[in-house]
């Protein structure tokens, strides 16, 4: 019986591969990774930079401010030059809504502080309180719309009622977006640092919507109720 001898060819200047027939590297120098025959390299995924979320928030706030500034200019022009403008008594619930929204700005600040001092459970309670207050504000806006509708003031009744529904509805829609972000983005953040950054960004947006509502309420009081 013939014996088959397999020889290993050595290239000058290179050490023979210890992997044999498969040719897979199983060892290396100090500090070098070791790979097996079925080893695959996995790169650590990189998340979106936190600064990108903040930049997106600033762009969104700029766009929203431009939108409502345009609505305010159209409202002022229509109010001054409209002979069929009818004054509307603002629903009293709007003032209650203002107090609710101001309270939600406090609770979200309490949530930020709690997370900063590593009080995770307390932070979660303040976030839930902020969400409840945000939803209460939306519910209060629905009550205001029902109040106007019960008085026979619908979307197309007159220019005043049209702008009331348009402005309050647009603000409620943008605030609802903040509620969704607060409910999902913060809870899904993988690390405490990302959760803190997400909460800080949403709080900035939340305070912006709060200040915007104060301006819109003053505008409605001057232009629609007068």
Secondary structure elements and pairings:
Layout: H1 50-81, H2 93-116, H3 120-150, H4 159-188, H5 192-225
- Relevant CATH superfamily of the domain at 91-225: Cytochrome c oxidase, subunit III, four-helix bundle
Apparent shape: elongated
CATH top level assignment of the domain at 91-225: Mainly Alpha
Please estimate the helix content: 55-70%
Approximately how much beta-strand content do the residues carry? under 5%
Q: How would you portray this structure in words?
A:
With 226 residues, the chain is mainly alpha-helical. The protein has a domain at 91-225: Cytochrome c oxidase, subunit III, four-helix bundle (Four Helix Bundle (Hemerythrin (Met), subunit A)), CATH 1.20.120.80. Helix content is 67%, strand content 0%. The chain is built from five helices and no strands. The model is unreliable at 1-28 and 31-45 (pLDDT under 50).
